[in-house]
Amino acid sequence: MNLIACKIHNNSLGKTISVNSFDEGKALLRQWAEEQFERSLTNEENDSLENEMEIYNDNDFDNIYSFSIGIVEEYVKE
Q1: What is the dihedral sign for C-alpha 44, 65, 16, 68?
Q2: Angstrom distances, CA of residue 4 to CA of 56, 60, 75
Q3: What's the predicted TM-score (pTM) here?
Q4: Mean pLDDT in runs of 10 for the chain (78 residues)?
Q5: Which domain holds residue 6?
Q6: For residue 69, how far is the Cα from the chain centroid?
Q7: Helices 43-52 and 22-37 sit at what angle, rounded to 10 degrees?
Q8: Residue 26 is assigned to a structural domain of this protein
Q9: Which value, in Å, is the radius of gyration of the alpha carbons in the chain?
Q10: Torsion angle of alpha carbons 29, 69, 67, 20, nearest 10°?
């Protein structure tokens, strides 16, 4: 399985990095989000990261940042 960690800004893919595991991806997302928001994650954000593999800040109305783990699949043309 090929996993990626993604930083998304205003619905555009901002940064994508290949990661070796969900734990590695979650650690990277946590680092990115804490650097971006200049604070530790809230309980709600930590729960979202653990359960949905994503972080979204509802309070960032103008410049929406979100962070997510995804699975890369190989495209097979039919």
Answers
A1: positive
A2: 17, 24, 16
A3: 0.87
A4: 92 90 97 94 94 84 84 90
A5: 2-72
A6: 5
A7: 150
A8: yes
A9: 13
A10: 30
Say if 78 falls within a structural domain: no
Using an 8 Å Cβ cutoff, are 25 and 3 in contact? Answer: yes
Asked, for residue 32, whether it belongs to a domain, the answer is yes
Q: Supply the DSSP string of 19-37, one letter for each residue.
A: ESSHHHHHHHHHHHHHHHH
Q: What is the side-by-side order of every strand in the sheet holding 12-19?
A: 12-19, 2-9, 65-72, 54-56
Element (H, E) at 50: helix 43-52
pLDDT value for 6: 96
46/69 Cα distance (integer angstroms): 14
The one-letter amino acid code at 64 reads I
In a domain, 77, yes or no: no
User: What is the per-residue pLDDT for 64?
Assistant: 85
- Structural domain count, the chain: 1
